[in-house]
Amino acid sequence: MFEIYNSNNKIPENRYLEMNDILIKDYILRKGLEEYKKREKIFKEEGFEYWKSMILNDPNYNIILYVIDEKIVAFICYMLIEDSVCLAEIQIIKEYQGKNNIFRKILQKFVEEIKNKNYKKISATIDKDNQKSRAVFSHVGMINTKNNWFEISIEPLEKWLNKSNS
Fold it and tell me: Helix-strand-coil percent breakdown of the chain, rounded to 5?
């Protein structure tokens, strides 16, 4: 169900290509095909190559995939930075959003991976146009500290996860 990739376990090409397809589909759903066409080069060329290089070469870049029937239905990418963790990307494909507690399950796995490693803060940038993500992460307890920057410490996140599982 979960696949974990990091500097010790490199993600295979078919998986990061599948992740990029998910990101493209999400962008098209949120912004429209016309906006995607303006940025297609980023998704398919320069931006993709930069992202791929980071995934494969940055020892602090980590990925958790949630897989059903060998297909990625959700993923979290995060960076370990000194005493904090920065969420780089969280995606759940549209057909699975709000179903089977996938969001909670993948967040729980994320917390298991970082817990007991002295990370004091979890942060993320959330695009101002992505109201759905802003609402979800505010519900979880992340606080919008400045512009698009959200933060939470691990304890309130664990408290929310435990409350949600009851």
Answer: 50, 30, 20
**pLDDT tier at 85 (50, 70, 90 boundaries)?**
very high
Distance CA 115, CA 104 (A): 16
- CA 163 from centre of chain: 22
* pLDDT per residue as tens digits for the range 48-80: 999 999 999 999 999 999 999 999 999 999 999
Q: In the structure encoding, which two tokens stand for residue 165, read together?
A: 């599982």
Q: What are phi and psi of 68, to 5 degrees?
A: -130, 130
Q: For residues 82 and 111, what is the distance between their CA atoms, to the nearest angstrom?
A: 17
Of residues 108, 166, 107, the one with CA closest to residue 137: 107
Q: What angle do CA 155, 144, 134 make, to 5 degrees?
A: 95
141: left (phi over 0), alpha (psi -120 to 50) or beta: left
Residue pair 126/133 in contact (Cβ under 8 Å)? The answer is yes
* Cα-Cα-Cα-Cα dihedral sign, residues 59, 114, 90, 2: positive
First to last CA, the chain: 22
